[in-house]
Amino acid sequence: MDQWTPQKRLLSTYSSALRRRRSFHRMGVGIAGSIIAAGLGFIYAAVVRLELLETIQAETFLAMGLSFVLLGVIAITAYGVVRAIERLSR
Predict the structure, then answer these.
(1) Between the CA atoms of 50, 57, 69 and 46, what dihedral angle is there, to the nearest 10 degrees?
(2) C-beta neighbour count of 86 within 10 angstroms
(3) Contact at 8 Å (CB) between 85 and 28?
(4) Is 26 exposed, middle or buried (0-12, 13-18, 19+ CB in 10 A)?
(5) Phi/psi class of residue 2: alpha, beta or left (left: φ > 0; alpha: ψ in -120 to 50)?
(6) Structural Rg of the chain based on CA atoms
(7) What are 25-84's pLDDT values in tens digits?
(8) SS3 for 57?
(9) Which of 31, 57, 68, 81 has the smallest C-beta neighbourhood within 10 Å, fewest atoms?
(10) How many helices (H) and strands (E) does the chain have?
(11) Within a 10 A sphere around the Cβ of 60, how many other Cβ atoms?
(12) CA 13, CA 53: separation in Å to the nearest integer?
């Protein structure tokens, strides 16, 4: 048979290595998502607690923007660490 002819798969369409890779991907996305959720909660608490919206200045927007960027970098780093652990576990 050639590569274009469909073949019947008996048990599963995914190999165990692919399933493990997918599970690590899902775990990395979950960890990154929880970091973002917790970080957004902390940012919201800081805005409410410090009443930053009443004294809106350029420094406030700069600080909030920097915190969003830093939060994204931390989440991407956590995802990368999980994927690196997956690669080392092969």
Answers:
(1) 0
(2) 17
(3) no
(4) exposed
(5) beta
(6) 21
(7) 888 888 888 999 998 888 888 777 777 666 667 777 788 888 889 999 999 999 888 888
(8) coil
(9) 57
(10) 2, 0
(11) 14
(12) 53
Residue holding tokens 């995802």?
79
Q: State how far the Cα of 83 lies from the Cα of 21, in Å rounded to an integer.
A: 8
- For residues 4 and 28, give the distance between their C-alpha atoms in angstroms, rounded to a whole number: 34
- For the record, the structure tokens of 90 come out as 């092969």
DSSP state of 16: H
CB 32 within 8 A of CB 76: yes
pTM of the model: 0.64
In the block, which residue shows the tokens 């919201």?
A: 44
Say which residue the tokens 């369409």 belong to: 13
Q: What is the DSSP letter of 11?
A: S
